[in-house]
Amino acid sequence: xxxxxxxxxGSDLVPAPSAVGLLHHVELWVPDLAxxxxxxxxxxxxxxxxxxxxxxxxxxxxxxxxxxxxxQSPDLTGDVHERRRPGLNHLxxxxxxxxxxxxxxxxxxxxWALLFGDRHPFAGGPGHRAAHLEDADxxxxxxxxx
Length: 146
Prior knowledge:
Distance between the termini: 36 Å
Number of strands: 8
Helix content: 10-25%
Oligomer: single chain
Low-confidence stretches: 5-12
Strand content: 25-35%
Mean pLDDT: 89
Structural class: alpha/beta
Strand order of the largest sheet: 1-4-3-2
């Protein structure tokens, strides 16, 4: 199954003006789909996304018009992600301020570790309240308190 989604039957083929230029989806290639589904599935659901698609090598979660794909592609050429190398460093998500602490507290049960604990929740600087988490495969998320 392909994760690419076209317009719904009868819908406009042109995105709403507010969506033009914004993210459509993010696809992360992961070395272990089951492990990623446990950690990312939990996190994305906590952030308000709903399970969207499922196929042999992947899963996706959607919030509004944006979705996140996890895929253990047969075309992977390695099994390690290193966020400090060129390429993707992290994804940042909005999280309501009242939920940030609860998500951070529960995260280790789902394979997430708190980064920059000595500066948490202001690792991004004064006035920027956020949590930085890393999963077992080295992917980082920043949960920005709104």
